Amino acid sequence: MKVLFDHQIFTAQKYGGISRYIFELIKRLKIVENFDIEVPLLISNNNYFTKDHNSIFRFFFLDRKFKGKQKIMTVVNQLNTVNQLKKQNFDLFHPTYYDPFFLKYIGNTPFVLTVHDMIHEKFNHMFSSNDSTSRDKKALIEKASKIIAVSESTKRDLIEIYGLEESMIKVIYLGNSLVYDPNVVIDIDIPKKYLLFVGSRRSYKNFDKFVSATSEILLNDKELSLLCAGGGKFSADEMTFFANLNISNQVFQYDLSDFNLAYFYKHAKLFVFPSLYEGFGIPILEAFASECPLVCSNTSSLPEIAGNAAQYFDPNDENSIKNAVKNVLNDETLRTKLIQDGKERLKFFSWEKTAFQTAEVYKSIFQQKNI
């Protein structure tokens, strides 16, 4: 069976959860079922391909900055994808994001759509009226042969918002790619005692409420810091916010490689995931893999993924957040238990399982097509 992916997410992302998912999936599909996989990508800065010396794909990578670069990558890669779509020499198509550009070219060939979350639908006030993600996603959902949801939580949201039949949706969990290497030495000067926050700090990530809730803990322990991995440099508004809480000297931001991120997890007192909503929550698995205690929200997919390996809190209640963090900070027995429970919970997830279950979806569609 020949499966055609497209260029979308590898044009848009240098790194990120969705491009990581597609990259890990296509690597393993070749192993699991020996599918013929094609990704019509000519130009990309995506880290996962450039750093994987054993990649089964050969692309021309452009890693220089210049005006108009993103537009050039998009046009060149989309033209190449369209050319492959027009040839119709594939059995199934799997778009890597939600742009419906391919619908006019795909004909009767079936396609599978992965839905990662329903953030644009549930938090539409956060996005510009010009953001077409929800409209594009809806157009694809209505025409997909099968939808893969990355959690039962996302599946429920799909049914609730779009009225889909359960039989249209297959839940397939993601895996973890982060591995802590004790031999890696980082050349970053970081505090010895810290809480860890990872990723974007956009409003649904609930960063401000989390910082406000834990500011008292930081003020009472000047040796404790809050380290933020990724998410971009702090804005002027964020710096003012920290100053008003009198914690400016205890909050730091870092842009990290995977090696360094694993180190940050491993040496943190705990990892806090205060998000109001997640479609899956890959940082949960990263924390488990790095033996870092997890303290997180009791919302959306997070309890489903973390299971009994987390100290939970109500993300809308600052006292709940503060007490959960204090409980884990002050109880070494609880920290040890969370680390052990996380290692056990991690065994439930793997990219090999993701690829195998996805291959089963592909095969079932292929068989129905050829009845």
What does this structure look like?
- The chain has 371 residues and is of the alpha/beta class.
- It folds into two domains: 2-175 and 350-369, 3-Layer(aba) Sandwich (Rossmann fold), CATH 3.40.50.2000; 194-346, 3-Layer(aba) Sandwich (Rossmann fold).
- It has 16 helices and 14 strands.
- It has helices spanning 8-12, 17-32, 47-50, 69-87, 103-106, 119-122, 133-141, 152-162, 207-220, 236-244, 258-267, 282-289, 302-306, 318-329, 332-346, 351-369; strands at residues 2-5, 36-38, 43-44, 60-61, 92-94, 112-115, 146-149, 169-171, 194-198, 225-229, 251-254, 270-273, 294-297, 311-313.
- A six-stranded parallel β-sheet has the order 11-10-9-12-13-14, with helices on both faces. It has a three-stranded parallel β-sheet with strand order 2-1-5, with helices on one face.
- Helix 9 (207-220) packs across helix 14 (318-329) and helix 12 (282-289) crosses helix 15 (332-346).
- The longest helix has 19 residues, at 69-87.
- The two termini are 15 Å apart.
